[in-house]
Amino acid sequence: MLLHVSPEPGPLLLVALMAGLYLFGVSRLTDRGDAWNRWRTASWLAGLLVVAYALVGGIAAYDTALFSAHAVQHMLLGTVAPIPLALGAPVTLALRALPLRSRRLLVKVLHSRVARVLTFPLVGFAVFIVSLYGLYFTGLYETSMRHPALHTLLHVHFLAIGCLFYWPIIGLDPVPGRLPYWGRLILLFVTFPLHALWALAMFTTNEVFAADWYSALGRTWGSSLLSDQQTGAGLMWAAGELVGAMVFVALFVQWSRADGREAAREDRRLDRLRGSATDQVRGDVPDATGTKQEADRETEQERQRQPDPEAELVAREAAYNAWLARLAANDTPSPQQPATIRNRARGAGQGR
């Protein structure tokens, strides 16, 4: 099960194509002197490796004979692989590496109404939970066993739903309507208990899913149908809790880094204010009373200008959208421009 490889050309070609396109985009950036985080490349390739193993490895060879093998395949495609794929930031890479016309088309897609609906976190959450309960507690699971095309479509569905759920929560790509970090944590707190309840329901039921299909196979080795189903449910339960803990840790790390960047920006702003106040004191001021009134007025104006957290999130999203618009307009700094402008463009591409 660990070392076997099934010669399935379709999944292998798809994985190779996705890896090749990503590496080609990275090479275009490096050839023109732009930097790209190596951890993002490693995350993308690791996610594709998980997808390849789930589709052509030993798990895939037994996915229609053992429910436990199907459960592992389900978790790899729907829960494990989407996380490193989201951390690979392929959309950001495409926005920086694509030609002008393709870049404009991608920006339009990102700002379309369909993209806003699909990337809204509650949509991914609802589809994720409904898919879990709807597949196994209806006749759809056994139907997918009897029709290979539907079985393949089910694999695509697992991977797509996993990406749809994890991309707005932990992904680094620009997505419209992204929740603040505390909102994403609440969504995770709600999702994984529901996942645990679903696995518990599968573990405690005495009904064998797709019993007619498994009985017709005439399998004489391994555990009984019900015992194998309970093994698969237990694996889903344990894997879901483990992956949930990993996502929590990664999200907390992202949140702390974002707070650190925000604190650094605030320190720079305060330094500028202190420098301005010092210059004003050294200038021609009528008297001490006028200086105090002017300082009080500036303090009040600065207090009014300070946004609340929600307004700050909106402003940051608007700034990132403006950066995407500049990319679409081919507003890429040339080598003859000052180095500071190029550094700002790189920082905007990697900040999210």
Automatic annotation (TrEMBL):
InterPro entries: Caa3_assmbl_CtaG-rel (IPR019108). Residues 272-352 are annotated as: Disordered. It is a multi-pass membrane protein. Residues 318-330 have a biased composition (Low complexity). Residues 331-340 have a biased composition (Polar residues). Its main location: membrane. GO terms for cellular component: plasma membrane. Residues 293-308 have a biased composition (Basic and acidic residues). This is Cytochrome c oxidase caa3-type, assembly factor CtaG-like protein. It comes from Candidatus Protofrankia californiensis. The lineage of its organism: Bacteria, Bacillati, Actinomycetota, Actinomycetes, Frankiales.
